[in-house]
Structure prediction request, 538 residues.
Amino acid sequence: MTGAPGFHSIVHPTPEQEVAQSRPDLRDVFHDLFLEAIFMGAYGSFAPREKPSLYVVHQGDDEAPYRAEVLVLLQALFGTPLHELSVVQYRQAVLRDLKQAPLLKGMRAFQRGMQEFRASLRRAEKADYAAEGQRWFVDAALIYGHALQALHQTLVGADLQSQALQSLQGHVADLLVSPAYTARMKEAQALIQALAQVRYAFRVDGTAVTVLQDPQEPDYSATIADTFACFRQGEVKDYRVQFNPASRLNHVEGQILDRVALLHPQVFERLAQFRSAQEGFAEARIVRLDRELAWYLSWIDYTQRLERAGLPLCFPTLHLEQGHIDAREAYDMALAWQCLDSQKPVVCNDMALQGDERMLVVTGPNHGGKTTLARTFGQLHYIASLGLTVAARSASLLLPDQMFTHFERVEDINNQRGKLQDDLVRMHRILAAATPHSLVLMNEIFSSTTLDDALWLARRVMARLAAIGAACVFVTFLDELSTFDAHTVSMVGTVDAKDATLRTFKVVRRAADGKSYALALAQKFGVTRQQLLERISP
Prediction:
């Protein structure tokens, strides 16, 4: 396969679609849905490492600039939901391909090759002697070339279904037959061979070192070893210094190298010309590929633990219109990691808004999984809008134009507003911005006022949202809201059939029953009126 002029990126199909993406302010959404914890788990390895302290000294981190660059890219990708269905599907197809074990292995090998390439370039830049840096530069060119060849073999051997990786395969194939690539590899290999033929001698006399042309004398080391072999009684300590090719030349080695270059001007002139002619040879889209792969691979690595634990993940089907939301065996991804850490079971739930249904009202006992359900609903839609796998057995979801969350907040002394006023101000902003293609998640709002006022305000908000036509999830202690209109669906948190104090964390679709199970909890902890009276009576 050759010729892929349309290849741009594995996360954006075209430059125009990339430019069209803007990163919104989603601090409330990230906070309320625990998205920061999820994405930090994925890209945390690229975060800055611990700085040296007075008592802990860390070696220099040469990859820090690269990791910082990748971190910025990953934060931007995780922080920018997509609104164009074709771009979401473009990314889903790439991730599907990358989940093939042979392709995944090959892509990781490509990243390791690019890491070695960067290391050689850094050594070339940091070298104290010109010829030393030029030699490292030749290594960098060869490593880059071999990484490209291996990448092409990986892509050719894979069953590629995604437009992105098919285009990448053609792009890499074109690079490998380009005059620039073939000339660079040919000259680099010729230089390696020419340098291998360079021979010289040096004489050490006290502090003086003299570099000489190779006298063409035979190497007597093997002859001497054979002569005295009969006196050998066993292995002896090897006092020879092991040369580390990654180490920099010291001043003596560097001056010897300079004088060797004077003895062999033609070879070293070619070496200098190669570097000056090939500066910046790495193709920009290949360099970018290495960084963008980190985004996909970080998600694969993050979700592998969930898969190994038997938790479901899926590629969701996305819709631009309301009425097609249906998730089966879904769970809160951030909470799932905590459960795995503490060896607790992960509870999955189903949820749906089909046809004319627009509002999901969730009621039930406290600490029964209501907020977790709302958070799961939001996580599914946000992560799906990135083009990634979501935490569910199967999922049909909305691709919203905007996502809003209104969860409880502690009072902020800086805004000089009471809690109720703050709830109303935040809700007003949401109602002013929401559209029929938006998603709104509300959790226990208006809890700071009286029951009657909270019910009146909540109904006003629901009426506005119903008029807008946005999809909503409303977690509330107000059971009356579960029958607001014909477009409202009721879900209820359940308790154990034998012990009402035990929460099952299963939230099921049924009519609200008005039970909070407060008496059962009070009895469990011995704080009912009768229990208290018995305790204080003489």
Residues 421 and 465 are 19 Å apart (CA to CA).
